[in-house]
Write a structure and sequence with these properties.
- This protein is of the alpha+beta class.
- It has two domains: about 25-155, no CATH class; about 170-490, no CATH class.
- Helices cover about 30% and strands about 20% of the residues.
- The chain contains twelve helices and 18 strands.
- It has helices spanning about 1-20, 30-50, 70-75, 85-105, 110-120, 125-140, 145-155, 165-170, 170-190, 235-245, 445, 480-485; strands at about 60, 70, 205-210, 250-255, 260-265, 270-275, 280-290, 290-305, 315-330, 335-340, 350, 355, 380-385, 395-400, 410, 420, 425, 485.
- The strands form six sheets. The protein has a six-stranded mixed beta sheet with strand order 11-10-9-8-7-15. Strands 3-4-13-14 form a four-stranded mixed beta sheet, with no helix packed on it.
- A hairpin with a 5-residue loop joins strand 16 (about 420) and strand 17.
Length: about 500
């Protein structure tokens, strides 16, 4: 009976989603300048659709081409906000769009850029024109209750689970073996973290990557914040924060596949990396803890592959990586560390001393996995991430003197939207669906009923489902509050 009820509810949800796809456009602004702005946005959208690249995340807000939304900012849509806070929210939604527009513009051939500039922005250039247009449209929408209500209603981010797959795959039944597989993986992970560090197996040579330079963190409490209370570090302050909290990657290197490098496309269309050019990719995100926005620092490295161990290995394939995230509290201290592979798989939590997992999470169908508490480095020490050979599984997080390390130059995550193609040109690492074509894993043929698109494939930020049983996303704004409670509230 429960399975039948679930099946019918999923059918109704799918029908509602299909019905909701036909959105009525908002009434146009009664302003000729705004109308010309909308024409410019439409022209760029058409050019990008025909000959360019667009990020699949953040999500567009239908009818409002100057705005895009991520899961963090979507959390404000139902909150009461005064005029100043609403303006700050719209500004941040527009910043997401501007960042995406920069990627789109850079992806267009020069001849198309020139045509757009001549027709829509002969004096300023297209991106400057759209920046000014955004200010015009925001001023209109901020004082138009009907359009503002529509922005709130549409500032949503769809989840990363395919309802159709779950319905066709009889999710309640197929989840039984998946649930057992998750349980077994979590037991194996706890066992991996159990032995002393000195007893961890080494298949090749331990190499450290990162910057051994002593970090200097800025005064976090002095960072400016907007009307929503969101930290706004200046570029130099952000660089200092990234440097202060950057880990040292200690990798068991037994083959070229264990050396971090720069992603590129091979001539045959297979994604891979150049291990001769090790690189660290960085990005900023935000979450919410105890009703307050908190800053997150994301560090990402890529590997050529997760080598297959045999013909029945469902997990191996081209391209692999590790994403390490540092969530800072209001004073700038690490509140939580967590990690995933770029497939969204293997989410591990390393809570700081201020956090404890909520007791009820142990009863979830797929409980969160915290194999060890976060270490607290002593003066002069850095956080060390020990990665296994082949699987690139995280084996231990500990603190130590950094010692000698291979330098990992930092690059902005946005550069992954224009990686080199062997022979000539550049191309986004991610497809229009957020997946990296060619990084598919054989496990997808078994796990498709979970609803996760192509389980095991690498994917774009903002597209990481992190649970096979139930639903969780790496960028869920309320993930901290759902998983943890402050230590001081423990009985």
């Amino acid at each position: 009976m429960n399975a039948l009820r679930w099946f019918l509810s999923m059918l109704l949800s799918a029908a509602a989603m299909l019905t909701g796809c036909a959105l009525n456009p908002p009434h146009p602004p009664a302003d000729s300048a705004a109308a010309r702005c909308l024409e410019a946005y439409a022209a760029l959208d058409a050019a990008v659709a025909a000959a360019g690249t667009t990020p699949s995340s953040p999500a567009r807000i239908a009818g409002f081409p100057y705005l895009r939304v991520d899961r963090f900012l979507a959390g404000y849509r139902d909150q009461p906000m005064n005029l100043v806070a609403t303006a700050a929210w719209l500004t941040r939604l527009n910043r997401l769009d501007q960042a995406a527009r920069q990627v789109e513009w850079n992806s267009l051939p020069g001849v198309i850029q020139s045509k757009l500039n001549r027709r829509h922005a002969p004096e300023t250039g297209m991106l400057t024109r759209l920046e000014r247009c955004a200010a015009t449209l925001q001023a209109i929408d901020l004082h138009d209750p009907e359009r503002l209500a529509l922005i709130r209603a549409r500032a949503r981010v769809a989840d990363e689970y395919l309802t159709v797959n779950q319905v066709v795959g009889l999710y309640p039944l197929t989840m039984l073996p998946v649930d057992f597989g998750v349980f077994r993986y979590q037991e194996e992970t706890r066992a991996r973290f159990a032995p002393p560090l000195t007893e961890l197996p080494i298949q090749g040579e331990l190499r450290r990557y990162g910057s051994p330079e002593p970090p200097n963190a800025p005064n976090f409490t002095a960072l400016p914040r907007d009307a929503l209370g969101i930290p706004e570090p200046a570029p130099a302050q952000l660089d200092s924060l990234f440097a202060a909290h950057a880990p040292i990657w200690e990798i068991d290197v037994a083959s070229e596949a264990d050396q971090p490098g720069t992603p590129y496309w091979r001539a045959d269309g297979v994604p891979t990396v150049d291990p001769g050019e090790p690189v660290l990719y960085r990005s900023v995100s935000y979450a919410r803890w105890r009703d307050e926005p908190v800053l997150q620092l994301n560090y990402l490295i890529w590997f050529t592959a997760r080598p297959q161990t045999g013909v029945f290995d469902l997990l191996g394939g081209p391209l692999d990586g590790m994403l390490w995230r540092v969530t800072l509290d209001q004073s700038g201290r690490p509140l939580l560390y967590d990690s995933i592979h770029p497939c969204g798989c293997y989410h591990l939590l390393f809570p700081g001393p201020a956090l404890r997992l909520r007791p009820e999470t142990a009863d979830w169908a797929e409980p969160p996995l915290a194999p060890q508490p976060a270490p607290i480095p002593k003066p002069g020490e850095r956080l060390i991430l020990r990665l296994a050979s082949g699987s690139h599984f995280l084996q231990r997080v500990y603190s130590d003197q950094p010692g000698a390390a291979i330098i990992l130059p930092s690059r902005d995550y946005v550069m992954l939207y224009a990686v080199a193609v062997e022979g000539d040109g550049r191309r986004s690492l991610f497809g229009s669906d957020g997946l990296v074509v060619g990084s598919e894993r054989a496990e997808r043929w078994l796990l498709w009923p979970t609803g996760v698109p192509s389980p095991g494939a690498m994917r774009e930020q903002g597209r990481h489902a992190i649970a096979f049983v139930g639903q969780r996303h790496f960028d869920d704004a309320d993930l901290l509050d759902r998983l943890f409670t402050p230590v001081r509230e423990q009985p």
